[in-house]
Amino acid sequence: VVLLVNLLVVRAKEINSKPSGLKFVENKGQWNEAVKYKSEFNRGAVFLEKTGFTFLINHKEDLKNRHSILHEKESNLSKAIMRSHAYKVNFIGANVDALVNGESRCKEYNNYFIGNDQSKWASNVPLFKEIRYHQIYNGIDLLAHSNGDRFKYDFIVKVGVDPSVIALQYEGLNKMHIENGHLVMKTSVGEIRELAPYSYQKIDDQLIEVPCEFKLKNNRVTFLFPNGWNQNYELI
User: Fold this and answer.
1) Closest by Cα among 23, 21, 18, 20 to 109
2) What's the pLDDT tens digit per position in 52-94?
3) Which of 5, 55, 99, 160 has CA atoms 20 to 30 A from the CA of 27?
4) E runs forming strands in the chain
5) DSSP assignment, residue 235?
6) pTM
7) Are strands 190-194 and 140-147 parallel, antiparallel or unpaired?
8) Mean pLDDT along residues 117-138
9) Alpha-carbon distance 143 to 41, whole Å?
């Protein structure tokens, strides 16, 4: 099951240069210990935790104003007001001891030397293009990556495993509903969408699409497969 979160101010097709994709930065002590990896996009950031994600979304107009202030001859960032909204996606019933590790390591790295407390400093912090949650549910992996500059995550369901165990609880939203198959989330800084899920199987070297839909009840999201799937093959 492939989930694509549409969080960008500017869509990839509107950018002249080819999108480089998101980078996921490992937490080496520079952030709260609950965070395993973090990735930034031009609307905010996503924090990857053991059993869920936390999204930080910034107001579009505030981002534009800050950009304008930064390009003034005598810029004064104290004039830049930034309104933000955070919400969580919790994986209900997930394995709290699931192994979370980076894949496709990038050549570059980050250093964090902020403030006087050296215990909060971190050097040679690695970046990755993908993060894998091994056995987030029994027989199910989760792969976090990106499509251009949009955050994306896949549930990889092994043969013989029932994907109905996957359940996502959304916390901290003003409101949410399904519209034309997409998950629409209302926040204090605007509307966010998760595009309708796309599911497929690889059978005899061919990608076979498997119809899949969101099911929403009390801010809890699960997945429906109205036509079923071939249970002899892995489901993504």
Assistant:
1) 23
2) 999 999 888 877 776 666 666 565 666 668 889 999 999 999 9
3) 5
4) 2-6, 24-26, 35-41, 44-49, 52-58, 84-91, 99-112, 122-137, 140-147, 150-157, 168-171, 175-179, 182-187, 190-194, 199-203, 206-210, 213-217, 220-224
5) B
6) 0.84
7) unpaired
8) 87
9) 18
